[in-house]
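Journal club side-thread
Mid-discussion, someone asked how the predicted structure for our own chain would compare to the paper's figures. Pasting it here so we can look after the session.
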Amino acid sequence: MTDTDHRGLILDQFTRQATAFSTAAPITDEGALRMIMAAARPQPDDTVLDVACGGGIVVCAFAPHVRHATGIDVTPAMLERARALAAEKRLSNVSWRQGDVTALPYDDASFAIVVTRFAFHHFLDPLSVLREMVRVCTPGGRVVVVDTCASEDPAKAAEFNRLEKLRDPSHARNLTLTELKGLFGAAGLPEPLMTSYELRSDVASLLARSFPNPGDNVKIIEMFKASAVDDRLGIPVRIVGDRIHYAYPVTILAAQLPAQ
């Protein structure tokens, strides 16, 4: 798939997902946002960049703790949601920009904290994005990556990625935790500190904020049901009555750039 084709899928999916994704309880969870703050250690004079900021939830969470927070995203509908959230929270120290996160339109060493959440699995080349994040981060600054992780078992990881691609055609690939950690070294960062939690919900709610191709929702439900029996997805799945519950593993990886 070309970069242009993939960009088109992202614009299509996240234009449609903008409201449902930005307001979903697992995405707006305050406890998870506090974990990101703890990993990033924001200071009052810091500037923050959220890469692929979506509906601005992370930017708005940082804003009370820093001098200024900026979000960049490729999807205009998501940025509209971000502006609305900032207005609702009466935040004046935030800004938004539409742009390509694979070539960030900022000078070197522009931000004390550079963060991204739930975006790496949409990148065709996550290492190039991480290198851009490092480039725009100040010496002694912090780089934070938050994403769901695939199983270390190759077969289970492949099945999980197949499910996610059916659910969201703009999905590229969920990395394993080992792979995510490896990116930090490849980008010249020290080994990251890590904290983990689970993104819990049920399949009906997940599909309500997803836009799979016609008929694929049936395949997705069957894959979850099968995994409740044989763990083919490599994630916790359980069926209670007529509801299918799941827990996606999420890891927060944070590293500090060397000070010059």
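Post-session note: The radius of gyration is 18 Å.
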